[in-house]
């Protein structure tokens, strides 16, 4: 499982000119699933999202998590995170999981984050979305449950 985590001042998702999700201070997280993922991969990414210390403390050091600052989460499915453009100019998405498994794991991740008390908003799975954000910092972190980064 892969995730791109962006610390944001605000972020939103629009589908067909309709605003479907919006958050203030928190994290925008793009998530992708691969065929080899299992429950351990979901738990790894969930824990990293919850505990990643990328918010500033009173001394201006990145030392606080989204949990510490009471931030919101916007979780957006993005299969293109497994795009491979090493050969040619057209990316291959062969490493992206099929839609059924990807949606299942996406929903499990969201449920687990909500169960842990987070205010979670979402994109709309398998839909063309327009995602807007104000990246704070900018801070963008790549996560991979296979620890490939």
Automatic annotation (TrEMBL):
The record's listing under SUPFAM superfamilies reads: DTD-like
Q: Write out the annotated subcellular location.
A: Cytoplasm
Matching Gene3D superfamilies: D-tyrosyl-tRNA(Tyr) deacylase
Name any Gene Ontology BP term.
D-amino acid catabolic process
Q: State the source organism's domain of life.
A: Bacteria
Q: Where is this motif: Gly-cisPro motif, important for rejection of L-amino acids?
A: 137-138
Alphabetically ordered keywords of this record: Cytoplasm, Hydrolase, RNA-binding, tRNA-binding
> Which CDD domains does the UniProt entry name for this protein?
Dtyr_deacylase
Q: Catalyzes what? A: a D-aminoacyl-tRNA + H2O = a tRNA + a D-alpha-amino acid + H(+); glycyl-tRNA(Ala) + H2O = tRNA(Ala) + glycine + H(+)
What InterPro entries does the annotation carry? Daa-tRNA_deacyls_DTD, DTD-like_sf
Return the domain comment text from this UniProt entry: A Gly-cisPro motif from one monomer fits into the active site of the other monomer to allow specific chiral rejection of L-amino acids.
The Swiss-Prot or TrEMBL record describes its family as follows:
Belongs to the DTD family.
Q: Summarize the subunit comment.
A: Homodimer.
What is this protein for, i.e. what is its function?
Answer: An aminoacyl-tRNA editing enzyme that deacylates mischarged D-aminoacyl-tRNAs. Also deacylates mischarged glycyl-tRNA(Ala), protecting cells against glycine mischarging by AlaRS. Acts via tRNA-based rather than protein-based catalysis; rejects L-amino acids rather than detecting D-amino acids in the active site. By recycling D-aminoacyl-tRNA to D-amino acids and free tRNA molecules, this enzyme counteracts the toxicity associated with the formation of D-aminoacyl-tRNA entities in vivo and helps enforce protein L-homochirality.
Which HAMAP family does the UniProt entry name for this protein? Answer: Deacylase_Dtd
**What name does the UniProt record give this protein?**
D-aminoacyl-tRNA deacylase
């Amino acid at each position: 499982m892969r995730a791109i985590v962006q610390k944001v001042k605000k972020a939103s998702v629009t589908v067909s000119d309709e605003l479907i999700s919006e958050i203030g201070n928190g994290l925008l997280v793009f998530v992708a699933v691969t065929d080899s993922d299992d429950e351990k991969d979901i738990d790894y990414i969930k824990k990293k999202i919850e505990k990643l210390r990328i918010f500033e403390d009173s001394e201006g050091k990145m030392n606080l998590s989204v949990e510490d600052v009471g931030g919101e989460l916007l979780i957006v499915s993005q299969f293109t995170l497994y795009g491979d453009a090493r050969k040619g100019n057209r990316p291959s998405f062969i490493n992206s999981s099929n839609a059924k498994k990807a949606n299942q794991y996406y929903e499990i991740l969201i449920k687990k984050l909500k169960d842990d008390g987070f205010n979670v908003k979402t994109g709309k799975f398998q839909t063309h979305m327009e995602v807007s954000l104000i990246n704070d910092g900018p801070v963008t972190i790549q996560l991979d449950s296979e620890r490939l980064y």
